[in-house]
Design goal:
Low-confidence stretches: none
CATH architecture of the largest domain: Up-down Bundle
Structural class: mainly alpha
Mean pLDDT: 82
């Protein structure tokens, strides 16, 4: 957790310094493109500040009012960042249109160009490192902040080209056109970040996490695990909650059932960096399970094995035992 704090604090400090430098550059150049970059940096600062708070709240232990923990705030933090990006893009387009109607003479463009280039390099490397750490720690806040910093760097390339063209061609309208192009790119990226955060808040199925869980279970599958269904995954920041129904031989005693459930939990728990909470509903097998049950020398078998049920995303997510699949599909 300390590494998360350090990363997001570094992002906040660097974004603040870059914002100040970019506004100074705008003061000397009066370039719409540079103002666009400076305004976008305000979003970096605000988002990093709230992200720091979100990571602090998400790290708090579960309590009576939050039985699943506080991790959901990370999705809210990412969503706020998306909203801020969209609002900034709207303001940038408005300012660029104003500049088209009432142009302001520009000056000292080489100075502004050198500042933008420096900002692009710093934001790209910082964003890459923050996003990679977010993926490693399964943190939506760090991922969103890293993507935002990389977005700032990518869009900065557009501004570099625009300011360079203005220097070469003396066509100052290109400065405003680059601002509009950059703002449109920003808005689209903000919408994608907002969409992903809303999905997390609404417990939308995360395909990547589901595929990882299914692959783990397929690799470690036991013959005694006759049927697995109603697999559901919820993400709370870096923490994951998993529900499922596991069918075991009906002649197992309670101790054996507990051992299998505990083994199932251990297999999944050690594969994720955050806390993994697993609720397993243990079902006894039924005679209709016999045709795909792989248990050898089963003392209660009533029919031979005639098929093998593949453990994939569809089969494991269905809220029904596998012998019912032909009825409902």
């Amino acid at each position: 957790m300390n590494s998360k704090y350090h990363l997001i604090f570094a992002s906040f400090v660097i974004s603040t310094l870059l914002m100040i430098i970019k506004f100074i550059a705008y003061y000397f150049t009066y370039s719409s493109a540079i103002l666009t970059d400076a305004l976008e940096s305000i979003i970096n600062v605000v988002a990093s500040g709230f992200a720091f708070y979100a990571i602090y709240v998400a790290s708090q232990p579960r309590d009576m009012n939050h039985p699943y923990g506080h991790g959901k705030i990370e999705f809210f933090s990412a969503g706020l960042e998306g909203v801020l990006i969209i609002l900034a893009s709207i303001f940038i387009i408005f300012h660029a249109i104003q500049n088209f109607v009432h142009p302001v003479p520009m000056s000292n463009l080489p100075l502004g160009l050198s500042i933008i280039i420096s900002g692009v390099i710093i934001n790209w490397f910082l964003g890459y490192y923050v996003e990679r750490s977010g993926i490693k720690n399964n943190s939506p806040t760090l991922i969103a902040d890293g993507k935002h910093l990389k977005l700032d760097a990518q869009s900065g390339i557009i501004l570099i080209l625009a300011v360079g063209l203005v220097l070469v061609t003396k066509q100052e309208w290109m400065d405003g056109a680059a601002s509009v192009l950059f703002a449109s790119f920003m808005a689209w990226s903000g919408i994608k970040i907002l969409r992903k955060s809303i999905g997390g808040l609404m417990d939308e199925r995360d395909e990547e996490t589901l595929e990882k869980v299914v692959d783990i279970l397929k690799f470690h599958k036991r013959d005694e695990w006759i049927d697995l269904h109603n697999l559901r995954i919820q993400q709370y920041g870096a923490d994951i909650h998993i529900d499922c129904h596991l069918t075991l031989p009906r002649y197992f005693d309670l101790d054996t059932v507990h051992e299998n459930v505990h083994e199932f939990e251990d297999i999944l728990g050690k594969e994720f960096t955050g806390h993994v909470e697993i609720f397993i509903h243990a079902d006894p097998c039924l005679p209709l399970c016999c045709h795909y049950c792989q248990v050898q020398d089963c003392p209660v078998r009533q029919s031979p094995v005639t098929k093998t049920v593949e453990w994939n995303k569809l089969n494991l997510s269905l809220n029904q035992k596998h012998f019912l699949e032909k009825i409902d599909q």
